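Ticket #4471: structure output looks truncated?

Reporter: J.K.
Steps to reproduce: submitted the chain below (321 residues) through the standard prediction queue, then opened the result file.
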Amino acid sequence: MSRIVYLGFPTGQVAGGQKMILRHVETLRALGFDAVFWRNAANVMPRWTSYEGPVEVGTDFRRDDILVIPDDAPNAIAHAAGLPLRSVIFCQNQFTFAALGYAGVARFPPERLPDFISVGPTCAASILRAFPEARVEAVPCFADERVFRPGAAKELAIACAPRKRPFEAQAIQAMFRRFHPRHAAIGWSVLEEASEATVAEVFARSALFLSLSRLESVGMTPLEAMASGCVCAGFTGIGGRDFATPENGFWVAEDDCEAAADALAEAADVVARAGPELARRIEAGRATADLWSYARFRSALEAAWMGLAPEARLSAGPLPA
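Returned output as attached by the reporter:
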């Protein structure tokens, strides 16, 4: 009987891609699929997010295992090309996959080309452009509505997570205060290596979110901010174009820090005025986040694996964690 073995190489640092791998495993088990998370002994399980599910450490693979390999693990992809096991590449970033994964996939014999799971339409299109003969299953990433929701009251404060754009974050903050002194007193919550619970708490109470997305397949953080009722401004990170609209955020061209500072000031004006426009903006954000919800992810994950490996489903109900 086939098992679904998701490989992960966590370092303990905050990484949305690692969180999504863990959510795949625990959700598959909740759906009755025999799925496990596999790591090396040297890897460190994340403590910044919760996780329920079996973890195997350096165990040998079984004859009927299906290996699900992250797109940023070139050694694992290349190694899998020489194994007599079925492989699936979990592609969470088309740019990372191009830089680190193309060469390994090219080593697979044509009759054993791996299947792919993609987290968004832009990412899926890029995979198919590189490997037109590939099978690509769409399983969207998600803003977890079980965790991210608006708080009872909002503060006129700006939340941001500058991990991918630390220089831009500094420039935008300085420009925002210098160019728009009417907002100089607005507080900032800068999230550095924060736990998921802390991020949810900050988003819940903050009225504004500065998006510092960069080279994304989709970009979960702005979606989580929208789910929390924040008004968003800043960069889409390319992949965010799959959900960004003029209604759900004040979006600007990549790397244009001055435009981002101005957009953030415009968003702050809307929040300060309150009224119908603010209500429309918040509702547009929530409606967008609903399209990228856990409920939709769960349904898509079930459909994908019923197509890829229905034999791995052992039960109609959940398996033990």
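Triage note (M.O.): checked the attachment and the full token line is present. The first strand starts at residue 4 and ends at 7.
Status: closed, working as intended.
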